[in-house]
Design brief:
single chain, mainly alpha, Protein Yjbj, Chain: A, 82% helix
Length: 140
Amino acid sequence: MSVNAQVLRGQWNQVKGRVKEKWSELSDEDLQIPGGDVDQLVGRIQQRTGEGRDAVESFLNDITSKGANMISHAAETAGEYVGQAKERLQDNYGRLADHARERFEDSREVVRRNPTESMVVALGVGLVAGLLVGLSLRSR
C-alpha cells in the first residue's frame, strides 16, 4: 500500500494534527515533508513510533480519504445551495419584472387618460429638480 503523495501534501496541514494526536511522540520537525518526499516522512514516522510501514500508510490513507470525502460532500452541498439560490433569484426577478411591467402599463394608462394633468406634473417635477440642482451648485 502506498500513500497518495499529492493528496497528502495537499491536505497536510489538516492531516498533521491527526498524526500528532495518534503519535504524540512525534515533533514538528519529524512531521516535515522535505522536498515533498512522502516516503521519507513515512519512514521517519515508522522509525520514531515503531509502527509498521503498512500501518502508517494505512492511517495516512484513511485520514486523507476522509478529508477528500468531506471536501467532496461540502462541494456538493455548496452546489445545491447555489442552485437553489439561482432558482429563487430567477423566480423573484420574474415577479419583479412582471410587477414593473404592470406599473409601467398603469402609468401609461394614467397619462393617456389625463394628458394635460400629466404634462403639468412632469413640468412641476422638472422645475423642482432643476431648482434643487441649481441651488446645490450655487452653494458650492
